[in-house]
Structures are given as structure tokens and as C-alpha cells.
From TrEMBL:
UniProt keyword Protein biosynthesis present: yes
Stated role: Removes the formyl group from the N-terminal Met of newly synthesized proteins. Requires at least a dipeptide for an efficient rate of reaction. N-terminal L-methionine is a prerequisite for activity but the enzyme has broad specificity at other positions.
Record gene name: def
Active site: E137
Cofactor info, note text: Binds 1 Fe(2+) ion.
Protein name as it appears in the record: Peptide deformylase
Organism: Pararhizobium mangrovi
EC number: 3.5.1.88
Family: Belongs to the polypeptide deformylase family.
Length: 174
């Protein structure tokens, strides 16, 4: 397993739409292991392939609490097939937008059709934090970031801040 470097805002890669996975094979399994290694190392509770620069429809999650046993979940080619009318608000953060958090309102529950790590088709019904996290990571696969749910003013401030930080990192690297 390898920890991959995270793609950070304002990198345009984060706005790419990810391509469906054609084959579930050993190469994909190694990539999934790398995603888990990267996510746990960060530390985070979800990570999409595009966040490490791989535009494939793969995401990993683990919303278990620190004191609980790990519960790693893999979603390949996930599709939300239904959303509840009920809404829920969670404070969201993102490994690609470090140290920035904001309240985001989303459907309280979702049903997601996907392949698991073995390539078996599954349907997952999720609510609470798992539903929020699934929607957040599936958004990544579609080039959408959680800051897109904020007001234009807040979103523009975040992008400006991270653009300035990226410029400073680039200047230090020279």
C-alpha cells in the first residue's frame, strides 16, 4: 500500500468528471488499498479517486468512530438511485480543502447502487453521516465540491484563500 499525494484546491483536476471503472481486477484492488492508506493517514473519513489525481469512479469511506472497529467501505461506479425529501445538515470538511469546514444541507438519506471491491453489484441504504459522506464523495466523482453548496461570496473567499496558498507553495518550491 502506498500513500498518495492529495490534490488540493484550486487544482482544476478536482473539477474533472471521473470515468466509470471498466474492470474490477488486481490493479483496481491495489488502488483501493492505496486510497484507504491515504485516507487513514490524512486522517479522513472518505476519499474519492480524483482526490489523488485518478479520474475513475471509485471512492472509499470509513465513518466509524475512533473507539470503534474500522469499517472500510468501497464504492465502485456509485449511483444515487433515490434521495429522501427529508434534509439534514452536517459540518463538512474535505481532505482537498484542508482545515476549512462549513455547514451543508443535503438529503438525510440516500440509496446508492454500486459495485463492491469484488465487483459484486450492491445497493446501500444510508442515513446520517454515512449518507452525507456518500453524497460528498460521489459529488467529487462528478467534479463538484462541498463549497459549491455555499453562497457565492463564501465560495469565492475560500477559492481565493487556497489560490493564494497554492501560489505561496509554488514560490517556496522554486
Amino acid at each position: 500500500m502506498t500513500t498518495k499525494p492529495l490534490i488540493l484546491l484550486p487544482d482544476p483536476v478536482l473539477r474533472q468528471k471521473s470515468e466509470p471503472v471498466e474492470r474490477v481486477d488486481g490493479e483496481l484492488d491495489r488502488f483501493v488499498s492505496d486510497l484507504f492508506e491515504t485516507m487513514y493517514d490524512a486522517p479522513g473519513i472518505g476519499l474519492a479517486g480524483i482526490q489523488v489525481g485518478v479520474a475513475r469512479r471509485v471512492l472509499v469511506l470509513d465513518v466509524s468512530k475512533d473507539e470503534e472497529e474500522k469499517n472500510p467501505l468501497v464504492f465502485i461506479n456509485p449511483q444515487i438511485v433515490s434521495r429522501s425529501d427529508e434534509r439534514a445538515t452536517y459540518e463538512e470538511g474535505c481532505l482537498s480543502i484542508p482545515d476549512y469546514y462549513a455547514e451543508v444541507e443535503r438529503p438525510a438519506s440516500v440509496t446508492v447502487r454500486h459495485l463492491d471491491r469484488t465487483g459484486t453489484e450492491r445497493t446501500t441504504e444510508a442515513e446520517g453521516l454515512l449518507a452525507t459522506c456518500l453524497q460528498h464523495e460521489i459529488d467529487h466523482l462528478d467534479g463538484v465540491l462541498f463549497i459549491d453548496y455555499l453562497s457565492k461570496l463564501k465560495r469565492d473567499m475560500v477559492v481565493k484563500k487556497f489560490t493564494k496558498m497554492a501560489k505561496q507553495r509554488a514560490e517556496k518550491a522554486i
